[in-house]
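Extended Data, panel c. Modelled sequence:
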Amino acid sequence: MKKLTSLEIEHLYTFTRKHFVEFYDVQTELVDHLANGIEAQWEENSGLEFEKALEKEFKKFGVFGFSEIVEQKMHALEKYYRKEVWNCLKEYFKLPKIILTSFSIWALFTILNLIENKDSIALLLMFGVLSFYISFIFKESKRIKEAQKVTGKKWLFESVVLQFGGLLQLLNIGLYMPIINDDNQWGALALWSFSTCLVLYVLWFFVSVKVVSPSLKSKFSKEHPEYKLS
């Protein structure tokens, strides 16, 4: 059976890049798919030129080319990431971790309830938590850019990790809502809501950074040995 040469495989990588696939992990999947398709065509017609076989195979992706594949891959990774975060977070609502979670919420509620200037303290707490998030994003973005310069490779899953699977916006809404009210008063419900959201935010950030992200990177390093170089 006729097989693709290493030069033809490299040409397929170049072909995917020219068609706006910038992530190496997605490129690899597409190259594998294209290569299998081309070799299947050669089983039926061994005299078929490589470029014509590639053109025929590419047409199977439709008018949008590879864009739909990239989008589907990103959504799948985001879904996987969110699922892993949720599975880890659920452990903090089971014994024995639920005791620590409940105590943290109660302690924060109690402290806020005793403080007169709640707005300033709430803003200070939010600023502190978000500062850790911004610091992580800055450091991780810098590391990724430096790795890209060395390896020349971008990874879709790193982009998903950096976005935390799209979970940040959801928790931000819950974090800010308790202090956005017409009379600027803090009732028991607002205090409980803020305390719960802040503790959940911290838990989410910890699980995302310390548990799910390293696990995802470890999994991909096994699937893509090239990633270890970055």
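The chain has two domains: 6-65, 68-229. This feature is highlighted in the accompanying rendering.
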